[in-house]
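It is worth pausing here to work through a concrete case rather than discussing structure prediction in the abstract. The textbook approach is simple: state the sequence, then state the predicted structure, then interpret. We follow exactly that order.
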Amino acid sequence: MGLNLEADIGDEANFNIGVNHVWYPIDGWGGEVRIEGQIGDTQHQAQPRPTFGRRSGGLLGEHRGRDPQRQGEQGRSPVRRALHARVGSFGFSLAHTSAALEAFPERGVDWTQSYPCARVGRAAAPIDRRGLPLMRLTLSIPSFGPFFPDGRLHEITDLARSAEAAGVDTVIVPDHVVMSENTQAYEWGPFPFPVDVPWLEPLTVLAAIAGATTRVRLATGILIAPLRPAIVLAKTAATLDVLSRGRLELGVGVGWQREEFAAAGLDFSERAQRLDDTLAACRVLWRDAPASFASPTVSFEKIWCEPCPVQAGGVPVWFSGTLHGRNLRRIVSWGDGWIPIMTATRADLAEGSARLREAFSAAGRDPGALKVRGSLAVRTGASGRPDLAGTLAGAPDLVRAGATDVQLPLLAFVRRPEQLGDFFGALAEQWARVSGAAPAAASAERAGA
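Step two, the predicted structure:
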C-alpha cells in the first residue's frame, strides 16, 4: 500500500529543488521510503527521514552542523531549509551526492562530507578546512541551586532561548531526585551547594525548554538512570524526543549518594547492574514492538511502549565516568557517547577516545559516530576573573584530543540572572571567532525576535 505525494520547493539560496515523487508504504509504519528529486540539472534519489513512524528499513542521518555563511532564522541555514521539505505529516531531507554539494561551497566547511546517507546509525561529523570536526558547544545551565531567586525558576526557559540564539548547540541539566545531609561521598571536593536548594527534575525541565526553543539540543548531564524504572525512563525519553522533534540526548551515570537510592527503596550496591539493565531495556523498548527483555534487575515480556523516539536508533545515550572495562563495554554495547569525569585531563580524554574508537571498530560499529564531551578548563584573565574568550580558545585543543562536543559551565561566568544578557552577547561573539559559527549580529538579531 503506497501513498504518492507531489511537492515543489521554491527558489531558495539561489537554486531550486523539485521533489517529484514520494513513495511511502503504509504497513505498520515500516518498509522503505524513497524520494526522487532534482537539484539544478542533476537527478538524485534518496531515502527520507520520517518525522514520525515505526523504524523504517532505512533512515537518513541529518547533519547538525552550521552553515557559517548563511545562518537561517530558526537556526537552520537557507541551504538546509531548502533541503528539508515537509509534505503533510511526513518530514524528509534529501541525501546529496558530492557533485551536487560541490556546487554550493561554504566558508570553512567541506560540504561533500556533511550529509552522509546511511541505512543504520547516525551521521558522522562534518569536517572543517583545518581537518577538524566542526565543534559543538554544550552549555551547562542552572536547573538547581540558588541562581534563580524564589519564584523565578521558570526563567530557565528564557535562559535556554538566549543560549539557542547565541549559537549554543546543546543545553545540559543535572539530576538529583532528593538530597541528604551526607555529602561527604561527593568525589570532587566539597559539595558546592546547601542541601536544601531546589533541584528541578531534568526531563521535565527539558520538556519545558523543548516547547520554548526550535533548534538547540536537550541533554542530561548526568541523569541518575538507576533511580528510574526502565519502562518509565523509556516512555518519558521517547515522548520528549517526539515532542522536541528529535533533540533529546541522555547523559547517564550511576550516582554517588547512598541515601538517594535508599529513599527510592533501591540497593546502592546494585546501581551499576541496574544502569546496565535499564539502558539495555530502553534500547529494546525503543526498537521492538512488542518488546521482550530479561536481566537481573529488569524483565518484561511482549509489551508495547509507544511512541518510539524520532531519532534513528533511539535517543542518543552518553555514559559518564572513568573508562574502566565495564564502562567501556557499556558504551560499545548501548551508547553513542562518553562523558569523562570532571577531573579528566586532556591526556585522559585523548587516550579514552582512542580506546573507544578502537573498541567500536572491533565491535563492527563506526568509530566516526562516537561522541565525546570534553570540559573546557576555565581560564582567568589579568584581573583574576574567569575569562570567557580565553576559556573558549581551548576548544580546538579538546577537539584535537578527540572531543566532538565541548562543555562550558555557565555558572563560572554568571552569578545572577541580570548578567545573562551581557554573557550571551559575549558568548555569541567569542564562539563565532573560535568555531566559525554564525556572526554575532545574526545571533543577537534572533535573540531579540
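Step three, interpretation. The two ends are 44 Å apart (CA to CA). The CA atoms of residues 38 and 357 lie 37 Å apart.
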